[in-house]
Design a protein that fits this description.
Blueprint: E1 4-7, E2 11-19, E3 29-34, H1 36-46, E4 51-58, H2 61-72, E5 75-76, E6 80-83, E7 90-95, E8 103-106, H3 118-121, E9 130-134, H4 135-139, H5 142-157, E10 161-165, H6 176-187, E11 192-193, H7 197-204, H8 209-217, E12 223-228, E13 232-237, E14 242-246, H9 259-272, H10 277-291, H11 304-312
Parallel strand pairs: 1-4, 1-9, 2-7, 4-5, 4-6, 9-10, 10-11, 11-12
Antiparallel strand pairs: 2-3, 7-8, 12-13, 13-14
The protein binds 2-keto-3-deoxygluconate (KDG).
């Protein structure tokens, strides 16, 4: 019976294989699976957590590629819809020797952006323990924001814990103010909020982990988890306890995209398994470190055995 649920827009990403070439100049690309919430679903399923994913695909080769990948990754497809009226989104991604790669989206008015609240009405919430949401789905359309709010309300009614990763993507928003207001509006309704410290700078004007945590804890969030770049991860709970776990050293970073979602996989899966906040931060850091050593967003996410070996080493 599924215990983990998420909603979002899956993407196909064409990652350039030409190093340090702009998207204009790169000529070779490799196809991977992407989409922040889908990354989290892939990671949870790989760690044997029964996972449901709500989305909508176009009737096109990208949609078929994603459906195949969902099945290969043991993600339930009961709530994966299709429409003939819109395409599945995709994006291009640079390959860079340092820093974050530039990306370019082809996703406006995509199939996933057009899901409405009816898709939520068909969900069987029995047995579900955790819902993970991200600000990317909130950025897609007025309809996606309405659907997200409806899902949040239903999850609250059913007593399911909710995590929210703001996942700031300014390119998807009409304005910076709209982005900040909407993301904080959703964040305040979650049990666990997990921004990056640099996102805190934009969302509330500070990149100090404890200031960020206090901002959300003072507004009803139970646990604030802050990813502090290459340093580690910090958490503070409503009782005022603080935790910090440093990151694992990575010798060769291939691609930073997907590391934040990998962190979410580690943190959420550990909490679902009853581990402490500290152990959850450590597992989050571990999967983030594994993620950056591979080109695809989720290609480096481990199964239970691989995770055990990495943590031992
Ligand atoms: O977090 C990784 C995502 O950025 C990537 O998979 C693509 O969902 C995506 C987005 O909208 O940026």
């Amino acid at each position: 019976m599924p215990e983990f649920l998420t909603i979002g827009e899956p993407l196909v990403v064409f990652g350039a294989t030409d190093l340090d070439q702009s998207l204009t100049d790169a000529t070779h690309f490799k196809k991977h699976l992407a989409g922040a919430e889908l990354n989290v679903a892939v990671g949870l399923a790989r760690l044997n957590h029964a996972t449901q994913y709500i989305t909508q695909l176009g009737v096109d080769p990208f949609g078929k590629f994603i459906t195949k990948a969902l099945k290969e990754n043991n993600i339930a497809t009961d709530y994966v819809h299709t429409t003939k009226d819109a395409w599945t989104g995709f994006q291009l991604k640079e390959r860079v020797s340092s820093g974050d790669p530039a990306t370019f989206y082809f996703r406006k008015n995509s199939a996933a952006a057009q899901m409405n609240t009816q898709v939520i009405d068909e969900i069987d919430f029995s047995g579900l323990k955790h819902l993970h949401l991200s600000g990317i789905y909130a950025a897609l359309s007025a309809q996606s924001r309405q659907t997200l709010q409806y899902l949040l309300n239903k999850a609250h009614e059913h007593g399911i814990t909710i995590s929210f990763d703001p996942n700031l993507r300014p390119a998807l928003w009409a304005s910076r103010d709209d982005m900040i207001d909407t993301l904080n509006h959703f964040a305040f309704q979650a049990d666990i909020v997990m921004p990056g410290a640099n996102e805190g700078k934009i969302l509330l004007g500070s990149n100090d982990p404890e200031t960020i945590a206090n901002f959300y804890l003072n507004r009803g969030v139970k646990l604030a988890v802050v990813k502090v770049g290459t340093k580690g991860s910090f958490a503070k709970n409503a009782a005022g306890e603080t935790f910090f776990v440093p990151t694992f050293k990575v010798d060769h970073v291939v691609d930073t995209v997907g590391a934040g979602d990998g962190f979410a996989v580690g943190f959420i899966s550990a909490r679902l398994e009853g581990l402490s906040v500290e152990a959850a931060l450590q597992r989050g850091n571990a999967i983030g470190a594994l993620a950056v050593q591979n080109a695809g967003d989720s290609d480096g996410y481990p199964n239970s055995e691989e995770l055990k070996i990495f943590l031992k080493s």
